[in-house]
Amino acid sequence: DSAVYAALPHLAPLLAWLQDRPSHVVAVVDRVGADIMVYERGATEPITTVVTGPDDEIERNAPGGPSQMRYQHRAEDSWKHNAGLVAETLVRELRRADARLLLLAGDVRALQYLEEQLPARARHEVLIRRVSGGRSPDGSEFRRAEQIKHETRLAADEERALLLKELAEGRGPGRRAVVGL
Fold first, then answer.
1. Measured between alpha carbons, how far is 157 from 28 in angstroms, rounded to an integer?
2. Rounded Cα gap, residues 93 and 87, in angstroms
3. Phi, psi torsion values for 106, nearest 5 degrees
4. I want to staple 37 with a disulfide (CB 3.0 to 4.6 A). Which of 26, 107, 125, 176 is the partner?
5. CA-to-CA distance for 17 and 64, rounded, in angstroms?
6. Long-range contacts made by residues 46-54, C-beta under 8 angstroms, separation at least 24?
7. Beta strands in 53-166 (DSSP E)
8. Given this model, what pLDDT does residue 7 score?
Protein backbone atom coordinates (compact mmCIF):
# COMPACT_ATOMS: atom_id res chain seq x y z
CA ASP A 1 0.00 0.00 0.00
CA SER A 2 1.20 3.46 -0.80
CA ALA A 3 -0.09 6.99 -1.08
CA VAL A 4 1.53 9.38 -3.54
CA TYR A 5 0.89 13.03 -4.31
CA ALA A 6 2.35 14.17 -7.63
CA ALA A 7 1.54 15.98 -10.86
CA LEU A 8 1.44 12.66 -12.70
CA PRO A 9 -0.59 9.77 -11.30
CA HIS A 10 1.38 6.84 -9.91
CA LEU A 11 -0.40 4.00 -11.71
CA ALA A 12 2.27 1.29 -11.83
CA PRO A 13 1.10 -0.50 -8.64
CA LEU A 14 -2.51 -0.47 -9.82
CA LEU A 15 -1.54 -1.79 -13.26
CA ALA A 16 0.61 -4.52 -11.69
CA TRP A 17 -2.30 -5.53 -9.44
CA LEU A 18 -4.65 -5.69 -12.43
CA GLN A 19 -2.16 -7.69 -14.51
CA ASP A 20 -1.88 -10.31 -11.76
CA ARG A 21 -5.67 -10.80 -11.84
CA PRO A 22 -6.67 -11.51 -15.45
CA SER A 23 -10.25 -12.16 -16.46
CA HIS A 24 -11.01 -15.85 -16.20
CA VAL A 25 -13.91 -18.25 -15.92
CA VAL A 26 -14.10 -21.30 -13.66
CA ALA A 27 -16.62 -24.03 -14.43
CA VAL A 28 -17.25 -26.91 -12.06
CA VAL A 29 -19.16 -29.44 -14.13
CA ASP A 30 -21.18 -32.57 -13.57
CA ARG A 31 -23.60 -34.48 -15.77
CA VAL A 32 -26.55 -32.32 -14.72
CA GLY A 33 -24.98 -28.89 -15.31
CA ALA A 34 -22.33 -26.59 -13.88
CA ASP A 35 -21.43 -23.88 -11.41
CA ILE A 36 -19.82 -21.10 -13.43
CA MET A 37 -17.78 -18.39 -11.71
CA VAL A 38 -16.72 -15.37 -13.76
CA TYR A 39 -13.83 -13.29 -12.47
CA GLU A 40 -13.55 -10.06 -14.42
CA ARG A 41 -10.12 -8.39 -14.63
CA GLY A 42 -9.07 -7.29 -11.16
CA ALA A 43 -12.07 -8.82 -9.41
CA THR A 44 -11.60 -10.74 -6.18
CA GLU A 45 -15.17 -12.05 -6.01
CA PRO A 46 -16.85 -13.94 -8.84
CA ILE A 47 -20.17 -13.49 -10.55
CA THR A 48 -21.69 -16.95 -10.17
CA THR A 49 -24.15 -18.66 -12.48
CA VAL A 50 -25.67 -22.09 -11.92
CA VAL A 51 -26.58 -23.99 -15.07
CA THR A 52 -28.95 -26.92 -14.83
CA GLY A 53 -29.53 -28.89 -17.99
CA PRO A 54 -33.02 -29.58 -19.29
CA ASP A 55 -32.59 -33.34 -19.49
CA ASP A 56 -33.36 -35.43 -16.45
CA GLU A 57 -32.42 -38.96 -17.56
CA ILE A 58 -29.02 -38.81 -15.86
CA GLU A 59 -28.40 -42.25 -14.39
CA ARG A 60 -27.52 -45.24 -16.49
CA ASN A 61 -29.90 -47.78 -15.05
CA ALA A 62 -29.07 -51.45 -15.18
CA PRO A 63 -32.39 -53.12 -15.91
CA GLY A 64 -30.73 -55.80 -18.03
CA GLY A 65 -32.28 -57.49 -21.00
CA PRO A 66 -33.03 -55.89 -24.33
CA SER A 67 -33.83 -52.46 -22.80
CA GLN A 68 -30.34 -52.02 -21.34
CA MET A 69 -28.80 -50.31 -24.40
CA ARG A 70 -31.79 -47.97 -24.76
CA TYR A 71 -31.42 -46.77 -21.14
CA GLN A 72 -27.68 -46.26 -21.56
CA HIS A 73 -28.09 -44.28 -24.78
CA ARG A 74 -30.82 -42.15 -23.22
CA ALA A 75 -28.58 -41.26 -20.26
CA GLU A 76 -25.62 -40.48 -22.53
CA ASP A 77 -27.86 -38.33 -24.74
CA SER A 78 -29.02 -36.39 -21.67
CA TRP A 79 -25.43 -35.76 -20.60
CA LYS A 80 -24.61 -34.43 -24.08
CA HIS A 81 -27.61 -32.07 -24.09
CA ASN A 82 -26.75 -30.76 -20.64
CA ALA A 83 -23.11 -30.26 -21.69
CA GLY A 84 -24.35 -28.31 -24.72
CA LEU A 85 -26.24 -25.88 -22.50
CA VAL A 86 -23.17 -25.46 -20.27
CA ALA A 87 -20.99 -24.83 -23.35
CA GLU A 88 -23.37 -22.13 -24.64
CA THR A 89 -23.34 -20.41 -21.27
CA LEU A 90 -19.55 -20.62 -21.01
CA VAL A 91 -19.03 -19.08 -24.45
CA ARG A 92 -21.38 -16.22 -23.56
CA GLU A 93 -19.65 -15.59 -20.21
CA LEU A 94 -16.15 -15.79 -21.70
CA ARG A 95 -17.14 -13.22 -24.31
CA ARG A 96 -18.85 -10.94 -21.78
CA ALA A 97 -15.84 -10.91 -19.43
CA ASP A 98 -13.33 -10.81 -22.31
CA ALA A 99 -11.65 -13.76 -20.59
CA ARG A 100 -8.85 -15.74 -22.24
CA LEU A 101 -8.58 -18.37 -19.50
CA LEU A 102 -11.10 -21.13 -18.79
CA LEU A 103 -10.53 -23.41 -15.81
CA LEU A 104 -12.54 -26.62 -15.74
CA ALA A 105 -13.19 -29.00 -12.86
CA GLY A 106 -15.61 -31.82 -12.22
CA ASP A 107 -16.84 -35.12 -13.56
CA VAL A 108 -14.45 -36.54 -16.17
CA ARG A 109 -17.19 -37.75 -18.54
CA ALA A 110 -19.10 -34.46 -18.27
CA LEU A 111 -15.89 -32.54 -19.02
CA GLN A 112 -15.32 -34.70 -22.08
CA TYR A 113 -18.80 -33.90 -23.41
CA LEU A 114 -18.35 -30.22 -22.57
CA GLU A 115 -15.06 -29.89 -24.45
CA GLU A 116 -16.65 -31.62 -27.46
CA GLN A 117 -19.51 -29.09 -27.37
CA LEU A 118 -17.30 -25.99 -27.13
CA PRO A 119 -17.00 -24.28 -30.51
CA ALA A 120 -13.61 -24.62 -32.21
CA ARG A 121 -13.17 -20.83 -32.09
CA ALA A 122 -13.53 -20.84 -28.29
CA ARG A 123 -11.10 -23.75 -27.92
CA HIS A 124 -8.47 -21.88 -29.98
CA GLU A 125 -8.91 -18.39 -28.51
CA VAL A 126 -9.13 -19.45 -24.88
CA LEU A 127 -6.53 -21.22 -22.79
CA ILE A 128 -8.30 -24.21 -21.21
CA ARG A 129 -6.80 -25.81 -18.13
CA ARG A 130 -8.06 -28.40 -15.67
CA VAL A 131 -8.24 -28.04 -11.90
CA SER A 132 -9.35 -30.63 -9.37
CA GLY A 133 -12.61 -31.14 -7.54
CA GLY A 134 -16.27 -31.53 -8.27
CA ARG A 135 -19.63 -29.91 -7.62
CA SER A 136 -20.50 -31.99 -4.58
CA PRO A 137 -18.84 -30.92 -1.33
CA ASP A 138 -15.89 -33.26 -1.04
CA GLY A 139 -13.26 -31.11 0.63
CA SER A 140 -11.53 -30.23 -2.63
CA GLU A 141 -12.51 -26.55 -2.54
CA PHE A 142 -9.29 -25.44 -0.82
CA ARG A 143 -7.08 -27.37 -3.25
CA ARG A 144 -9.08 -26.06 -6.20
CA ALA A 145 -8.71 -22.47 -4.95
CA GLU A 146 -4.93 -22.92 -4.77
CA GLN A 147 -4.85 -24.40 -8.28
CA ILE A 148 -6.97 -21.53 -9.62
CA LYS A 149 -4.59 -19.01 -8.08
CA HIS A 150 -1.62 -20.84 -9.61
CA GLU A 151 -3.21 -21.10 -13.08
CA THR A 152 -4.26 -17.43 -13.14
CA ARG A 153 -0.73 -16.44 -12.12
CA LEU A 154 0.70 -18.55 -14.99
CA ALA A 155 -1.76 -17.00 -17.44
CA ALA A 156 -0.86 -13.50 -16.23
CA ASP A 157 2.84 -14.27 -16.64
CA GLU A 158 2.27 -15.59 -20.17
CA GLU A 159 0.23 -12.50 -21.09
CA ARG A 160 2.90 -10.22 -19.63
CA ALA A 161 5.67 -12.02 -21.56
CA LEU A 162 3.68 -11.69 -24.79
CA LEU A 163 3.11 -7.97 -24.23
CA LEU A 164 6.80 -7.38 -23.46
CA LYS A 165 7.74 -9.28 -26.61
CA GLU A 166 5.37 -7.09 -28.67
CA LEU A 167 6.86 -3.99 -27.04
CA ALA A 168 10.41 -5.10 -27.85
CA GLU A 169 9.47 -5.84 -31.46
CA GLY A 170 7.68 -2.50 -31.84
CA ARG A 171 10.50 -0.26 -30.51
CA GLY A 172 12.88 1.63 -32.70
CA PRO A 173 12.88 4.32 -35.36
CA GLY A 174 9.74 4.34 -37.47
CA ARG A 175 7.93 1.88 -35.22
CA ARG A 176 4.91 2.44 -33.01
CA ALA A 177 6.08 1.43 -29.49
CA VAL A 178 7.72 3.78 -26.98
CA VAL A 179 9.16 3.38 -23.51
CA GLY A 180 9.09 6.05 -20.82
CA LEU A 181 6.98 9.11 -20.22
1. 24
2. 10
3. 125, -160
4. 26
5. 58
6. 49/89, 49/93, 51/85, 51/86, 51/89, 52/82, 53/78, 53/81, 53/82, 53/83, 53/85, 53/86, 54/81, 54/82, 54/85
7. 101-106, 127-130
8. 84
Widest Cα–Cα separation across the chain: 82
Give CA separation, 86 vs 26, 62, 105, 147, 165, in Å.
12, 27, 13, 22, 35
Closest residue by Cα to residue 127 from 164, 161, 160, 156 = 156
Does the pTM exceed 0.90?
Answer: no
Amino acid at 16: A
Length of the chain: 181
Angle among Cα 20, 107, 136 to the nearest 5 degrees reads 80
Query: Most confidently modeled of 41-45, 127-131, 160-164?
Result: 127-131
Neighbouring-strand partners of residue 143: none
Task: Please tell me the distance from the alpha carbon of residue 167 to that of residue 37, in angstroms, as a whole number.
Answer: 32
Amino acid at 130: R
